[in-house]
Amino acid sequence: MPPWLAWGALATTGAYTWEEVGGMALPLAAAAFVEHRRLDLHRFRRPLEVAALAVFLFLVAARTGVLPTVVNTLFMLCGVRLALPRGLPQRRQVLLMGFLLFLTTAVSTSDLDFLLWAVLWAAGAAAALVQQAWDQASERVATPAGPAPLGRVPRWTVAAVVVAAGCFVILPRLRAGVRGLPLGLQTPVGGQAGLPTVLDLSARGPLEGGTEVALRVVPGQPDPGLAGPFGLLKALVLEDLRDQRWERAADTPRRFSVGWRGPVPPDRPLEATLYVNPAPVQALPLPYGFQALEPPDGETLRPGPGGALRWTVPVRRILPLRVQLHPLPGEPERGMTAQRLADLTAAGDQAGAALRFSRREAPGDLPPAELAARLTTALRAFRYTLDNPSGGAARPVDDFLERTRAGHCEYFASALALMLRARGVAARVAVGYRLGPWIPEGGYWLVTQNEAHSWVEFYDPEARLWRIADPTPPAPPSAFGAGGVAAAAARMADALRFRWDRYVVRFSDEDQVQGLAWLQDGWDRLRLGPGLGALLKAAALVGAAGALAWAAWRFFARGGAGDGLPGRITELAPLVRAAGTPSEPFTGETARAWLARLALLRPDRAPALAALAQEADAVTYGGKGRAALARLAQTEAAAWRIGDPAPRVGS
After folding, report:
1. Distance between CA atoms of 290 and 331, rounded to whole angstroms?
2. Helices 66-83 & 45-62, crossing angle to 10 degrees?
3. Prediction pTM value
């Protein structure tokens, strides 16, 4: 069971493709088939071990990475060991390999889903250990053993989780400052949809939406108006146009932002915290406006291609970015040079259809803002679809404007930017996200890859500002924002994942201090009178003393109870006292061994002691009740008090 639980935990991490996960399950499935058919493969032990070695050498030669090689080899060895006849030592080997597989899984994820697998694995490993210890002890007694006491495993598991949670909360937080190494892992973001760095409309086939989380926007204050300024979150811009293909330019100015303590306008800013997930393209989606940014401790920002801001060091975990925003209707750019203006109005030699469409919908010499507004209105009459009907056409934008009149946001943005450039207006394509649905269960806006979006920025020379034009019709609403039980369950699940990351994965010493301060403030807010306060303190002290006394009784009277008693069986305590100091049980001595030693001292009591040993084995290994054992032990203790024990053998 532990290897299968480790495999289930590994499958949910997303660190491996489903083909790799299926390959890891093959040895375990083959071993399960052998077990089901009761096949004896003992004579094939050596070939199976050679095959496992060959797989390991192949993985090393293929350079699959350190961690994938170790994981695949462990699964292969588990399968071989499970397929062969196995005794107690071999079963312990399987448990150890399952533990190593679980550790390799733990270093590759910190997601909430892993918590459930961790609890299940702990319970499975505890059950395996109990069963192994029970089987080992049962081999030493003549009484047929009953089932192992596996009913205690859930209680032990819950107790372990409670103790672990308590230690997690109160122990000091360590900040080693060490970044994780990939070790050949395919990280969860490796196969996820991300922001495009190139807009190429020549691809065929429909687009596939994704529900992978890009970021969450937590408002700093309950302000419903915050959704407007944060409605579009820009990551980067594409300014180079080459044969209807948009790419990042090397000379794009960086985003207009300052440090958190930098100079900001005097009016009250909007505040929010962006919890940004790792992504293949290291570009932070940010709202339009004058921004003051506060990255987390130890992290810094630097400019990236396409006017983006990015983490200085690529990250593999969710990081918070605090934002103070003074909204602006666009992106400021001072000092636009003539050469840069010429580059941003170049439409290439394939803008014929775009120019014809723009002349038909917006004739005459119009100001940039009015021209963009008319063309945006015309394009919004088109149909939004992910089916990509113009994909693969020789000239995708021409086909979109003159034939299909349907497409996704990249077609709408590319067409509008091309039309504006053909009319002499500097334009570029912006890439980022629309603001996603509000999650009331968590108090934030959720932005997934379904909200990935492209729109247009055109330059207003009078305001020296890049203004926004979004020609794409409204997309279908997110499944998270719909009504019904399924949508509510999806929102609740995402809120739980977010809280797991916020309060568990990134739990810090600052959180500990804030938690203690919250408890102290809560106590102070009670405003208790002197008498009631003293009474509560006395009750707390009495409760703490009672808990300590109960724990001491459990340890010394019952389970330290069992210390000094054979087999830790408390019902034998009267006989231990009656037998006296010369016959005290040895440390670790079983009940049967101690009673056999007593029979050497009192041969006349040998039959009764043998019956008592049989009853003790039935209680310990057969699940029998303890009442009969207690009566026999008291009867034997009375017999020992009446008679004098015989001298020790050899004295």
Report:
1. 9
2. 170
3. 0.64
